[in-house]
Amino acid sequence: MIKAIIVDDEPYCCETLSILLARYCPQVEVAGVFHSGHQALESIREQKPQLLFLDIEMPRMNGFELLEKVKDLNFELIFTTSYDQYAIKAIRFSALDYLLKPIDREELQLSIQKAEQRLQAPLPQQIDLLLQKLASPTGLFSKIAIPTMEGLQMVAVDTIVHCVSDSNYTILTLKDRQKVVASRTLKEIEELLEDYSFLRVHHSNLVNLNEVNKYIKGEGGYLVMSDGSSINVSRSRKEGLLKRLQPNRP
């Protein structure tokens, strides 16, 4: 059994999540339900749950502030939140898991399955990335957390040359020619990197514009990257690429 604690200031949401877990995730035992971060803090320290469902928006102490006060993050973490574009972006940036309210049964089951496979605490770097991203809305950070089959890999953004779609995975090629296979779609990687100098030039290709050496003309054409690789450009994305490469072009 997975011992879990639910922290949410809305009793209805706690009750709904508890019912969903009892019906569809019998491997999860709810050991405590708390309606504020202050109430939950001591119980987390004493009960040492394996899994924490944590609401983001709570009065007096929100979910992120609670995390800052927990010294040992020895549990899996799933955020629960109403749609908050910026908070969700920060969570994705740090490769943590979240569920949107109202919580969908199938998404909950999937999150539990992923938690079962890992059952490990978030890396300290993940929490650091999350809190830094929240504290600096427009700030760009040197590293992002990339989920892989083996776990998480912290990757310096400026070392990524290009990213190629491989079904539900994405292959990141780095400057040292190392390849990182991310357990994320190219669309998800694109969203993580949208504030940086990356551009989707083809349905299968995302490139770091700082690593483009040449653009070769053609129907769509192709790019020659700093590592010598050639990346196809789709006809529909050609104009957008040229505008980024030549910002003063009429």
UniProtKB/TrEMBL annotation:
Protein name per the record: DNA-binding response regulator
Lineage, highest ranks first: Bacteria, Pseudomonadati, Bacteroidota, Chitinophagia, Chitinophagales
Coiled-coil stretches noted in the UniProt entry, renumbered to this chain: none
PANTHER family: STAGE 0 SPORULATION PROTEIN A HOMOLOG, TRANSCRIPTIONAL REGULATOR-RELATED
Phosphoprotein recorded as keyword: yes
Molecular-function GO terms, alphabetical: DNA binding; phosphorelay response regulator activity
Gene3D superfamilies assigned to the protein according to its UniProt record, in alphabetical order: 3.40.50.2300, LytTr DNA-binding domain
InterPro entries reported for this sequence: CheY-like_superfamily (IPR011006), LytR-like (IPR046947), LytTR_DNA-bd_dom (IPR007492), Sig_transdc_resp-reg_receiver (IPR001789)
Ranges for domain HTH LytTR-type: 165-247
Protein source organism: Puia dinghuensis
Keyword DNA-binding: yes
Database matches in PROSITE patterns: HTH_LYTTR, RESPONSE_REGULATORY
Keywords: DNA-binding, Phosphoprotein
Domain Response regulatory: 3-116
Modified residues (4-aspartylphosphate): 55
